[in-house]
Amino acid sequence: MLSLPALPASIPSPPISEFTFGSQWTIFGFTFGPFTIHIYALCILVGIIAATIIANHRLSKRGAERWVVIDIGLPAVILAFIGARAYHVLTHWAFYFEQGREWWNPTVQDAVWNIWDGGIAIFGALLGGGLGAWIGCKWTGVRFSAFADALAPGLILAQAFGRFGNWFNQELYGLPTSLPWGLEIDPSNSAFPAGLPDDTLFHPTFLYEVIWNTLGAIALIWLGRRASMQWGRLFAVYLIWYGAGRIVWESIRVDPSQVFLGLRVNVWAAIGAVVLGIVILIVQSRHKGLESSPYTAKHLRNVADISSDDDFVDVSDPAGADEIAEPSPQRAS
After folding, report:
1. 143 and 61, same structural domain?
2. Which of 37, 107, 119, 158 has an alpha carbon within 20 to 30 A of 62's alpha carbon?
3. Region annotation Disordered: residue ranges (predicted)?
4. Is 17 part of any domain?
5. Beta-carbon neighbour count of residue 222 at 10 Å?
6. Is 276 in the same domain as 298?
7. Neighbours of 153 (CB within 10 A)
């Protein structure tokens, strides 16, 4: 009788050791001469590409010009990184500004500018990226709500990709556990909690969030087929889904964090995301009809003014929103 191999009793972390294969590879990245590409950065890059492709497909299917998401995404990505770093610095104030730390000196690890040394936060990325997307939508004439709904499934999937970077970096793990899927952390890791045995296992919060976010992407794609999920409502569901999961994962993490009223600052941020999602659903319930176009009425009027075609016909909006019938995609710009 064949015996099945025993299931692993834990989840190993990627090794910290290096090996040479054409170029130097470390757990934190590739080294090509003076240049280093961090694996965490690659995970984020893969997530950005996936989110862009998904958002482009969904938005162009609504009638927008193909790849207009790139015009929107450029300021969104730039401000997302700025917001992510700013949020991290503000919520880890002592790391950068106390005990004589040279926060202004780019040659030291604790400088606020050195994003390559680690330290970005997703909630800051959402705030900065949201502002950048709003600016991009103003430039392109795309409705912010239409873009947000198109982005939602890809955004939460991108966050799932990004969490693999935490696994490679052996960071942001949870409390000690004896569960068979406990995560191994190298005891030489500077973030390894003091006083614990070297073979202590920890909750793999990166994996919990990967699973939760992937399920969220599937749920959002399914919900996105419903007409009732327009006007920013699908993005509101994203905020509720992601925030609800983050409340749980954040509550069991052991990395240092500021605490307010007994809760980590990111738990409060996650609660804020859930509340904001609920508010958006309530406020946007005033829109009873469908978004007739992913473009704003002002943008369509401007296009119509310079066109001799009769592709654009004004219609009234019973809910009071400025609507114009959907143009042929080839005429949108």
Report:
1. yes
2. 158
3. 309-333
4. no
5. 11
6. no
7. 25
List pLDDT tens digits, range 220-262.
999 988 877 889 999 999 999 999 999 999 999 998 888 889 8
Residue 19 pairs in a beta bridge with 25
10-residue averages of pLDDT along the chain (333 residues):
56 59 45 64 90 94 91 92 83 67 57 63 87 93 93 96 89 92 89 89 95 97 86 95 95 87 91 96 86 80 64 45 41 35
User: Which domain covers residue 329, as residue numbers?
Assistant: 293-333
Question: For the CA atoms of 290, 292, 295, 299, what is the dihedral angle to 10 degrees?
Answer: -130
Q: How far apart are CA 233 and CA 107, in angstroms?
A: 45
Binding site members = 163
Task: Using alpha carbons, select from 127, 106, 140, 128 the residue that is nearest to residue 276.
Answer: 127
321 and 299 in a common domain = yes
Do both 241 and 323 map to the same domain? no
Has residue 35 been placed in a domain? no
**Same domain, yes or no: 269 and 330:** no
- CA pair distance 180, 63, nearest whole angstrom: 49
Dihedral of the alpha carbons of 177, 180, 182, 183, in degrees to the nearest 10: 160
Residue 41 placed within a domain? no
How long, in residues, is the chain? 333
